[in-house]
Amino acid sequence: MVDQPRATLQELAKAVGVSKATLYRFCKTRDQLVLRLMTHCAQVMKQALADSHLDSAPPRAALRSLIEQHLAHKELTAFLIYNWKPDTELEPDIMNSWSGYQETLDGFFLRGQREGVFRVDITAAALSELLIAVITSMVDAERRGRIARMGIAQVAEQMMLHGIAADPGGGPGGRAAG
Fold it and tell me: Which residue range or ranges hold the HTH tetR-type domain (predicted)?
């Protein structure tokens, strides 16, 4: 559905190795298929939050696990990148399946801020959005051949923890003078 966004149900069935009748029994329309996949994505991504122990593991370890968990499901992330639309948030069936996802991420970053691990000059909600943006952009860039698969998790982790400054402390090569 990512590589051939206009594929028919018959073409999609062939791509995944099932008959059109089998796919049709699963979902009668493309919209139903997208809805089911969005709901499945939500279940998998919420399980990634749980498996990362965001409420109990040390924040840096939990962040590393969270990034790795999300990258383990790159195909679902790519599906979300290409199928999440602004009006998706108006669809109660989809949004109900995602309930709690953002709040859990926000709570994790807030805990990390309180423990002095994450910076406090950026809100927890903004850190959540930045994490999602970093992960999705890395998945998309790798899919398009812009970056190598190797080391994506480390790049995402370093970006979240240290940003793009050469020296976050402001030493030589760090913040510009003036």
Answer: 7-36
Domain-embedded: residue 174: no
Q: Report how far residue 61's alpha carbon sits from residue 52's, in angstroms, rounded to the nearest whole number.
A: 8
Whichever domain contains 59, its CATH number is 1.10.357.10
Residue 18: inside a domain, yes or no?
A: no
**Gap between the Cα atoms of 82 and 166, Å rounded:** 33
* Contact call for residues 138 and 70 (beta carbons, < 8 A): no
Q: If you average pLDDT over residues 22-47, what whole number do you get?
A: 82
Verdict on whether the full-model pTM lies above 0.85: no
Q: b/e per residue, 140-169, with b = 16+ CB within 10 A?
A: bebbeeebeeeebbebbbebbeeeeeeeee
Would you say residue 66 has pLDDT above 50? yes
Range(s) of the domain holding residue 116: 35-162
Residue 177 forms part of a structural domain? no
